Amino acid sequence: MEEASSFSSLEHATSFTRDLWFNMLPVQSWLDAFSAYRHIGDAITIAHGEIRTGLLQFGTKYCKKFDFGFITSTNLFRSQQIFEEVKVNYGRLLTVLHSSVVFL
C-alpha cells in the first residue's frame, strides 16, 4: 500500500485495497491478519437474516480449518458485499479443500 500511495481519492484507495486483498495477497496473509486480530469475528452480532446465516455457516467451516473465525463487517450492506466476494473468490477453494479432507 505504501508503494501505491498517495491515492487520488477514497475510491482509488478502496479499489486498490480490494484488488490487493482479494487478488494479490496469498491466503497465508489473510490468515496472518485474522490470527493477529481475533476480535474481527465479533462483528457477527450485528448481522441479520440471510447474511447472518451465511456468515455463520462459512465461519464454522473456516474455524474448523484455521482455528479462528472469518467474519468481518462494516455495515449490513458492506457485510453482504464482502460475503459475496469471499464466496465467489474462494468458493472453489472450499470445495477443493473439502474434497481433500481439509475443512474450511
Could you characterize the architecture of this molecule?
With 104 residues, this protein is mostly helical. The chain has one domain (26-99). It contains 4 helices and no strands. The protein has helices spanning 10-24, 27-36, 49-66, 76-99. The two termini are 28 Å apart. The relative contact order is 0.11.
TL;DR of this structure?
InterPro entries: OHCU_decarboxylase_sf (IPR036778). This protein is an all-alpha fold and 104 residues long. It has helices at residues 10-24, 27-36, 49-66, 76-99.
The tally of strands reads: 0
Helix content: 55-70%
Cα-atom radius of gyration:
15 Å
- Span between termini: 28 Å
Mean pLDDT: 67
Query: How does the overall form come out from the CA principal axes?
Result: globular
Instruction: Kindly give the count of domains.
Output: 1
| Low-confidence regions | 95-104
Query: Beta fraction of the residues?
Result: under 5%
